[in-house]
Amino acid sequence: MKNSLLTVTEASRRIEAGAVMVVAGAEDLLAQLPRGNWTGGTTAYFMTNQGGIVTADQLLCCEIEQAARSRTRILQPHSLSQITDDRYESGFTYLLLPAFSDVHQRYALEGADCPGLFNQPVMGWVTGVHLDDLGKRTPKVFDGQTGTAYQDAALALHVELAPSLVPELDIINPFTPGDGPVIVFPKTAFAARDCTIDGRATNFAEYLTANSIDTRLPLVANYAGAMINVSVQAVDGTSGEVKLYAPVVAGESYHFARPLADYARSFADNAASRAEARDSLTCNCILNFLYAELEGKTTGGFVGPVTFGEIAYILLNQTLVVLQCHPGR
Amino acid sequence: LEAQVADLVPNQSDPRWKEVLSEQRNPTFSALATRLLVTRLRQTVRSDPTSIAAAVQELHKYFTANGFAQRDLSNL
């Protein structure tokens, strides 16, 4: 894998040379790229070797040098379950979803039920916009084969690897469940009103307000050893509804995350403990970028887009996703 | 390799499958895919206990098909 911050001209040269790439950047720049073996997604935020940056002038190009072949598939909301249909015998899938779209919501709610989803890595991210452009521009995905941009469809880049290479997908999450009460929701949804707090029926918004909960900390659930976050988007004290950046799952046990003494440092230390940063595909969350104030700070050498949601098989929040290819045994 | 892995996978009638999916048994899994699939199946079984046979079948199929999950299989 080769991750580089490039100009449109430099990125175009690589595409014309046949590189298989995932390209992240501003919509205006992505629209200028030539047709080729790439998929793209909009964002203004990036992790680079020099630290986190915000730019509309360059593109982050993640070149998959190990790719033997690739093909893209456009997935409409009703056809998301076909995500695994066209993948190769050996390889992985890179998935891009436009934020705030129906396909984003549906993948979050139904993605884990796609047939055979867990048999091969599915990594990716939710495309975004500069926060100043929220409500003015829509997040997009780009099909490099045709140059077409979509705001309501997912793009899957299926990558074939030589059988001697084994792709491995993992997550780095600086958060662990805190010592607070167990929170359980009755419905799987992107918004929550009702919940139980240590078994007592409570309005979730009232609980957050009454207990001055720091909503920069995510809800964390233990998924058989994997810590899975759900981040709070907004608390509406009037309606009693709490909006979330990913769905909470009915019946799952959540805790608010243990506070980090130094958010930025904890995150960087956690990432720095991994030696494999260079040769990997990664993405990190806009909330980590904002709350950990990562602009100008490095995250253990991981280079990739900063996104409105991360995908490691399922939709994640406030998590760094890493995909690597190892020689098989 | 797939045939070799399949030989190692316990029969679907092995009680460990149901114990894992009903959370009576909590083995240490290392592959993210295994962790997420086991949790998804546990969530399904929790909301509909009659789905446990289908869940066992799906988990069995996953371990049979995926050599990368062999280490998790040995921890079952």
Architecture overview:
The complex is a heterodimer of chains A (329) and B (76). With 329 residues, chain A is mainly beta. Chain A has helices spanning 8-16, 27-30, 102-110, 204-210, 263-272, 286-291, and strands at residues 2-6, 21-25, 38-42, 45-48, 51-54, 59-63, 67-75, 91-98, 122-127, 141-143, 148-150, 154-161, 165-172, 183-184, 189-192, 194-197, 200-203, 219-223, 226-230, 232-236, 241-248, 253-256, 281-285, 304-307, 310-312, 314-316, 320-327. In chain A, the strands form five sheets. Chain A has a six-stranded mixed β-sheet with strand order 1-6-2-3-10-11. A six-stranded mixed β-sheet of chain A has the order 5-4-24-23-27-13. Chain A is globular. Chain B is mostly helical and 76 residues long. Helices cover 64% and strands 0% of the residues of chain B. Chain B is built from five helices and no strands. The A-B interface holds A 112-113, 116, 118-119, 121, 166, 168-171, 223-226, 228, 249-252, 312-314 and B 26, 28-30, 32-40, 42-43, 46-47, 62, 65-66, 68.
Give the integer mean of the pLDDT values of chain B: 93
Structural class of chain A: mainly beta
Termini Cα gap of chain B: 20 Å
Strand content of chain B: under 5%
Helix content of chain A: 10-25%
What strand order characterises the main sheet of chain A? 1-6-2-3-10-11
What is the average of the pLDDT values of chain A? 94
Number of strands of chain A: 27
SS-derived structural category of chain B: mainly alpha
**How far apart are the first and last residues' alpha carbons of chain A, in Å?**
20 Å
> Order of SSEs of chain B, N→C?
HHHHH
Shape of chain B: globular
